[in-house]
Amino acid sequence: MKKIPYIPALLMLFAHLLTASCNSKDDHLAVSAIAIREAQYVSADNVMRITIKDNDSLQLTPFIMPSEAAGVSLTYKNKRPELLSVSQSGLLTAKMVGVDTLAVSTADGGITVSYQVNIISHLIKATGLSKVEDKIIKTGSSFDVNALVTFIPGDTWDKTLICSSDNEAVVTVGEEGVVTGVKEGEATITLKSYYTADGRPISTSFKVKVMDVLVYDLNRAGWEVSTSHSLPKDDAIKNAPGSLIDGNKATCLSMVKPGKTYDGITVTETEDVFFVLDMKSERRFDHFRIDHRTNNKNVYLRVWKISLYGSHDGASYQTIAEDVAVPDVKEADILTSGNVRISGSVSEYRYLKVRYAEWDTKSGSTMQMAEFTVGVEGEEP
Question: Can you give the pTM of this predicted structure?
Fold first, then answer.
């Protein structure tokens, strides 16, 4: 319902002024208007309304005009004492759900203002749950999910959550909502509430990544990828440089292998095949992660080893690490390398060149990589 607290209130005060001018005997000390701070105008019902929960008390704050008459006594009287008790100091104490009428008057009865008192149930039911951001935790560490989620509205009475993990081998959730990382991997945590306004359960989900060594991924937003060669056309995998950093493991960057020809593109055996990440600013990193295509498990399409080089200007490159083996690359069902340490120290460059150093030379004409992620250990970028 629409609330308009100003214009109607002014009109009501004007009406009180007219009433006071007709009833007052002493214009100097006469009360011209009474207002209650806790009341709001509800245009749909054309009333001034005070709202209180059925298990609560509310001390009213009256305003008397003019201020010189502030010491004038007020009386409070309601029509339905079975719903609401009212003290002569203006303290409302609700007893049960319902609607009452409260009259606030000057002691001499010169001015009386009426308010609707809406007594609502304190058993407020949820209409939604806030979004919870994905988390990265270290193996063996825990956190309380109740501290991360907010019920909508905030004064929901029953804030019981039913929590579950879709991969309890990696992440467990206790009855009280304590999430614990068991081993490296990823799981989706789902939170549900059944105490809802419409009777249907509401839920929110987030991902928890567990690592033995805590590595934070760099934010790849705005990055650009360039390649050493033209790319064969493949709409099924959306073959493009940007597919390497789009977060979609069904798309990928596919490049022709040295010594092969595919889709009219030939790469000689002596040519280097590589891509360059422009991170747009100097970034600190010491790990990388390669994700393989989720819809193709052929290991002959994967890159087995890579070499990494850094640059500040995109022209002159320094060696970071060479011939780094991609873990588990020949295990068809393992779709990620996990976080791989690049070298013994943290590198800091704007440009990162990744050269393909080893692949299957017997089968397949292309090398495919779904995602390439760079991270840094122990510090959030």
Answer: 0.57
